[in-house]
Amino acid sequence: AVPFLIRLFPGLLTKFVFLNFLAFPFFVDLRRPELLLNNTISLYLVTEPDVTVGIWHTVPGSRGAEAWGKDQRWYEEALSDSHPVIIYLHGNGGTR
């Protein structure tokens, strides 16, 4: 019965393989990382038409005092300075 249901509803396969509908930890708003992590903000990148990727920008602890109380513009400018950028790809858990 399962192959028949997948053939009829291919969207079910992506839901059950990738589990995008699950958000863990529960009841945490991951769109506001500054409530959970120091020196972190949430940004969004448009990679293709109709495709937006949410990212967190976290500056290292050594720049924590400098980042304290800064707005999104400061974080965006910090991405273009001479400091290295490390990209961490966490997978497909549905949350950042």
UniProtKB/TrEMBL annotation:
UniProt keyword list: Membrane, Transmembrane, Transmembrane helix
Entry's transmembrane regions: 6-28
Source species, domain of life: Eukaryota
Stated name of the protein: ABD12 lipase
Native species: Trogon melanurus
Gene: Abhd12_1
